[in-house]
Design a protein that fits this description.
The structure is a single chain. The N and C termini lie far apart (57 Å). The chain folds into 2 domains: 100 residues, Ribosomal Protein L13p, Chain: A (Alpha-Beta Complex), CATH 3.90.1180; 32 residues, no CATH class. It contains 6 helices and 6 strands. By secondary structure, it is α/β, with parallel strands linked by helices.
């Protein structure tokens, strides 16, 4: 009895994208205003890893590029603005530094979304390289107009994020 071979995406180096064809990486544009951070982060992590494509392989970078604007207008549910803590450690004794989400929004609003997306991904070298394809901007303008980013299709957005988007319009 013969087994059918399954497709394995090739991966040879950091720029191992197919240059032509239906699976070349695309550029997507996402407006993060009035979006819940965790729900948006799951969508972005799925796009960055390439799980929405039929050629997805864990060992190969098959994801797309994403440009996120208005990161300063993201929303947390509940009392997370004051209760959610971002922690980092210097490595020395007593070197734990904590920052609330409200302080992080004032200081660097891009990092809120970047840390949320990183938390949704596997933590290895490939994921660190995939995270570099996420371009986050605090304001409404971005530097990637040359790549012609498309609006994110509705079938890639989770239903709850889309309902939130439609109810605000």
């Amino acid at each position: 009895m013969f087994q059918q071979k399954t497709y394995q995406a090739n991966h040879h180096g950091p720029s191992a994208f197919p240059r032509k064809g239906p699976y070349t990486p695309k550029w997507y544009y996402v407006d993060a205003s009035n979006q819940v951070v965790g729900r948006l982060a799951t969508v972005l992590a799925r796009l960055l890893t390439g799980k929405h494509k039929p050629i997805y392989s864990r060992h190969a970078d098959t994801g797309d590029f994403i440009v996120v604007c208005n990161a300063e207008k993201v929303v947390f549910t509940g009392k997370k603005w004051n209760q959610k803590l971002y922690r980092r450690h210097s490595g020395y004794i007593g070197g734990l530094k904590t920052t609330t989400a409200k302080e992080m929004l004032e200081k660097s609003p891009e990092e809120i979304l970047r840390k949320a997306v990183w938390g949704m991904m596997k933590h290895h070298r490939l994921a660190a390289r995939q995270l570099k394809k996420l371009k986050i901007y605090a304001g409404p303008t971005h530097l990637h107009a040359v790549q012609f980013p498309q609006a994110l299709p509705d079938y890639l957005i989770r239903r709850t994020v889309l309902e939130k988007k439609l109810s605000t319009q």
